[in-house]
Design goal:
With 557 residues, this protein is mostly helical. It is built from 22 helices and 6 strands. The strands form 3 sheets. Strands 1-3 form a two-stranded antiparallel sheet. The chain has a two-stranded antiparallel sheet with strand order 2-4. The longest helix has 25 residues.
Length: 557
């Protein structure tokens, strides 16, 4: 038994962990210290800038004994398994069953909840340190670029947090919490580089419109800085195209919120906001200069969805061989997302699969279908490209081949785990544009989707959808396929009030554990703020979301 497997065998099997730590380290900026130490110190400011992408790969936010605690990639994976798009083979090693099964550990007093809250608020801290250390009136091209990157990083982090923690109506859990307060439309407290500790101790959750205004202000400030500042040297930090891409995500979220008539909707109409979403998606496509991945790039056994240099990748994370996450072999993206390794978690049993119904709906001519193991005897069976073809018999039907280990190396974690992870690809912008246009003109929106699919995915694509609801469903379906495993589908499920049904005939979800049939957005997609934050912040204390763990029972076969 190799050393990596010994480490895996020695890890505790999945069990929800109650919080046992004391007060966490403050994540508030200390402005005087930051300014005194950093004013005019270009090297120190540069180090702060690179700490933003560096933090994304952090391991052990709440403790190294929690094996879901490995940074941004883990949060992306948690979001994916909350949908009907990603299934995981039942295994005692699957730490992410907490999220797929709506376990009690999703409640406010548990370590899993603490991990996500701590990680994201610490990410805000890294951005605030950058923003607070640079004079907003600077004319230095490097400083302008750094400030713009910090603003976009903060805006994107808050957009993710807002969409995750914002309470939206569902059919199971009431919006009225145990303190009798309706929390519909409340997001998260806003902490900036100017927030004092006293203010943070009584910092209410921002209403939807307040959060939109805050994020938009960061992005609008960033645009001229990124236009005039130095060009970025790595895709691990945002540029102007990414700024426009975050704008597109923001307006799409806000437009749907308005369309559903939810409280705190703010300025503008749904039609106006959808128009802005389409506008900024197109600006992102143009400014990025990115082009969609080709079939060869997607299916490459060595670089498939692990190479940050690929033309379509606008923004991404990057592991390197010095990262602690890589050295663990277990707590990183490759360990959990690549089914083809001889080490790590996925290879030990919890194989990643696409939902059977999603796979069945895909057209056999769509090359993206070849990124998954086809059923025996089907038209595509045997046409998949594996690093080691003999491994096919060990993989379950529908197993993912999308995320390859670094350099196609299946055995050496120091090579296999050195990969890029997509945070934004240009393909997403094409689908945002198509959906946003469709809300005003379904035929035109479907045409945009069709143009993309025919040009970049398969030439014979067609759809008979005509009604608005069917057109949106088709566009979003193709987007879900495109972004499988990239942590984005969750946002569309929650935003569009989509059903999650894992109980269909031939399902590949685990009966009695993950087999829910929920009409409308699942209640578990309203993340709960950690109890420690509620205890230390009077603004949150009586306005937390209701607990979502163990609020209903999955169906048995």
């Amino acid at each position: 038994m190799n050393k990596i497997y010994k480490a895996l065998m020695g890890a505790a099997l999945v069990a929800p962990a109650l919080l046992t730590t004391g007060c966490i380290e403050e994540v508030l900026p200390t402005n005087s210290v930051v300014q005194e130490q950093l004013d005019g110190n270009a090297k120190a400011i540069s180090a702060l800038v690179w700490a933003m992408p560096g933090h994304l790969n952090q391991v052990g936010t709440v403790g190294t004994d929690q094996h879901y605690d490995w940074g941004q990639g883990a949060i992306m994976h948690a979001r994916d398994v909350m949908t009907a798009d990603m299934s995981v083979v039942y295994s005692g090693y699957n730490w992410f069953s907490i999220w797929s099964s709506a376990d009690v550990a999703l409640n406010s007093g548990y370590a899993a909840t603490q991990f996500i809250w701590n990680f994201q608020t610490e990410q805000v801290l890294t951005t605030n340190k950058v923003i607070g250390s640079i004079d907003p009136a600077t004319t230095d091209p490097d400083m302008m670029a750094y400030l713009g990157q910090g603003l976009v990083f903060r805006a994107s982090t808050y957009l993710d947090m807002a969409r995750m923690y914002e309470f939206l109506p569902n059919s199971i859990v009431s919006a009225t919490n145990v303190d009798g307060n309706d929390v519909t439309g409340l997001t998260v407290p806003i902490v900036t580089d100017k927030t004092t500790e006293e203010q943070a101790r009584n910092n209410p959750r921002a209403k939807h419109n307040e959060m939109v205004k805050f994020i938009l202000a960061d992005l609008e400030q960033a645009i001229p800085l990124l236009q005039k500042g130095s060009a970025r040297t790595s895709k691990t930090v945002p540029n102007l195209g990414v700024c426009y891409g975050v704008m597109a995500r923001l307006y799409l979220w806000d437009a749907t919120y308005h369309e559903q008539g939810l409280p705190y909707a703010g300025e503008g109409t749904a039609a106006e906001l959808y128009q802005k979403a389409a506008q900024y998606a197109r600006l992102a496509i143009t400014a990025s200069g990115a082009t969609p991945m080709t079939q060869t790039q997607c299916l490459d056994k060595n670089t498939g969805f692990n190479d940050l240099s690929v033309s379509s990748w606008m923004w991404g994370m990057q592991y390197n061989d010095e990262d602690g996450a890589v050295k663990t072999a277990l707590l990183n993206w490759t360990s959990w997302m690549s089914n083809e390794t001889d080490f790590g978690y996925s290879s030990a049993g919890p194989f990643i699969m696409i939902g059977a119904n999603v796979y069945r709906r895909m057209n056999d001519r769509d090359f993206r279908k070849l990124m998954f193991i086809a059923p025996e005897g089907s038209a595509l069976s045997g046409r998949e490209t594996l690093i080691n073809p003999a491994q096919r018999e060990d993989l379950p039907t529908y197993a993912s081949l999308k995320f390859r280990p670094g350099s196609g190396n299946m055995t050496d974690n120091n090579i296999a785990c050195v990969v890029g992870v997509p945070l934004m690809r240009v393909e997403e912008m094409y689908f945002i544009e198509a959906e946003a246009v469709a809300h005003a003109d379904p035929a035109q929106g479907l045409q945009l989707c069709s143009d993309f699919m025919k040009r970049y995915r398969y030439a014979t694509y067609s759809s008979n959808a005509t009604a608005l609801e069917d057109v949106i469903d088709e566009i979003v379906f193709q987007k879900r396929v495109e972004l499988f495993g990239e942590g984005q589908a969750y946002f569309d499920y929650k935003r569009l009030n989509m059903d999650v049904d894992r109980t269909y005939s031939g399902t590949n979800f685990n009966w009695g554990q993950d087999t829910y049939k929920i009409v409308g957005r699942p209640y578990w997609m309203n993340f709960v703020i950690t109890q420690q934050e509620a205890d230390s912040n009077k603004g949150v204390e009586k306005f937390n979301n209701p607990n979502t763990g163990n609020q209903s029972t999955p169906l048995k076969q």
